[in-house]
Each structure stands twice: as structure tokens, then as C-alpha cells.
Amino acid sequence: MEDRLASPHLERLAKNLIAHLEKSGMTKPQFAESIGMSGSQFRYVRSRAANPSIEMLAKISAKLKTPLYELLEDCQLGHRRNLSAKQMSKNLSVIVKRKYVESGLDKEQFAKIIGVSLPQLYLMLRGDSNPSLLAVVEIARRLGIGMWELLGVKLMQIEKPLAR
């Protein structure tokens, strides 16, 4: 799995949260509370010691009224979709299911290939998973697709929207 300090996504998240903090005029504890975090959680995210879950990232995105894609990529959302945590989990589930079926492997073998435990794979297949950002990056890499495609923010070339 990608090292937290080396992660460009966590670096951009920290940088963008600091920019939002400065723009807000709030103190760090006030800002942290406004985005649904404790002061210590915010400190860990700013220092890239934390690896937030997709649900936490979606919550931050909603509170800041800034698409998650823009918080993590420093690019405008453009033609990409701004999805909720539930929608991203559903897309992850659909794509992991499809890749699992296409692989022809049993669940245990497939879980090893994508770098998750068997119980975690079951949660993903049911759509009940809330993986961390770096786990999503790694799963996407192992599946040979982009993180945004795995989450459904960026549609794969041949597919239609999975979540609405």
C-alpha cells in the first residue's frame, strides 16, 4: 500500500484543507468541528498521518461544498460526477463484483490479488465497505483501473452511470 507521506492525494487533501481553513477565518478547532472532525483528527490529516475513509472524505466534501475530486486532485470536477459516500461504495461494489466474475478465481484468490482480507471482500461485494483512501488507490491499481473509475466519479469508457 502507498506510503501516507508519499501519497499525492493525502498531500493535496492536507493542502486544500489548510487553504479552506485560512479562507474561513476560523481557528483550527472551529474549522475541524465545522467539517465533522475532532481537532486531533484534523491535525493528523494536515500532517498526512491519517488515511481517511471514503465516508469521512465525502462528509468533508459535503461540509465544504467542494467536490471530493477537487479536494484530492486540484482540478475542476468538469465532466466527472460528485457522488455521496453511499454512491461511491455502490460503484466500488459493482466494479469489484464485475472484476471478480471476470477473473474466474475463487473469492479467496481474488481477495489476495486485490490485497484485501476475505471478510473485507465480502463487505465490498455487498456494498457495505468503507475503505480508506489509500486502500481504494491500491485496489484500483491492482484492478488496473483508476481510483476515480473504481469509485464511479469518472466513468469507464464503456459504461453508463451505476449510481444515481
TrEMBL record:
PROSITE patterns: HTH_CROC1. InterPro entries: Cro/C1-type_HTH (IPR001387), Lambda_DNA-bd_dom_sf (IPR010982). One of its GO terms (molecular function) is DNA binding. Residues 17-71, 96-151 form the HTH cro/C1-type domain. SMART domains: HTH_XRE (SM00530). This is HTH cro/C1-type domain-containing protein. It comes from Methylocystis echinoides.
